[in-house]
Amino acid sequence: MLSIVLALAAGSAAAAPVLTAEPPLNRTLRNPIELKIVLSLIEGEAKVLDWRKPKVLIDGTDVSAKAQALLEGAAAVPFQGDQFVFMDQKLEEERAEFRLYGFNAPLGPHQVLVEVPRKDGGPPLRYQGQYLIVP
């Protein structure tokens, strides 16, 4: 589930939607993991981006179904063994905020790719990076 967490921090032009994470991608994290992800949308983009159906890959493994379950309102999804990833969300007209927490990620570097599709068929909002999990 480190996936959803990692999927964020893009923005090319001032008029584009912006994805950010705290802590940002390409940083070192310690367990237990807690991430805050914010998607800020300009007027009209909220209707074009299909942000409830992201493609999320972590280390090449597709975890999109777990990410989608959280986005659709599940309070938690299974992670590893008896662990769960929990998520709180706050949704506003032009901003979506997600807090993922309550799990321990495997140590080491983790590659993350997130693509948010567009309903109009345009290129997806894409973000790629990594987190390094240390003891």
Strand and helix map with partners:
Layout: H1 2-6, E1 18-22, E2 27-30, E3 33-40, H2 45-48, E4 55-58, E5 61-62, H3 64-71, E6 76-78, E7 84-92, E8 95-103, E9 108-116, E10 125-134
Parallel strand pairs: 2-10
Antiparallel strand pairs: 1-3, 3-8, 4-5, 4-9, 6-7, 7-8, 9-10
Largest sheet: 5 strands, antiparallel
Task: Give the overall shape.
Answer: globular
Structural class: mainly beta
State the end-to-end CA separation. Answer: 18 Å
Describe the fold and architecture.
With 135 residues, the protein is mainly β. The chain has three helices and ten strands, in the order αβββαββαβββββ. The protein has a five-stranded antiparallel sheet. A five-stranded mixed sheet has the order 2-10-9-4-5. Strand 7 (84-92) and strand 8 (95-103) form a beta hairpin. The chain is globular and about 40 Å long. The two termini are 18 Å apart. Residues 2-15 have low confidence and may be disordered.
Task: Give a summary of the structure in a few sentences.
By secondary structure, the protein is mostly beta strands. The chain has helices at 2-6, 45-48, 64-71, and strands at 18-22, 27-30, 33-40, 55-58, 61-62, 76-78, 84-92, 95-103, 108-116, 125-134. The strands form two sheets. It has a five-stranded antiparallel beta sheet with strand order 1-3-8-7-6. It has a five-stranded mixed beta sheet with strand order 2-10-9-4-5.
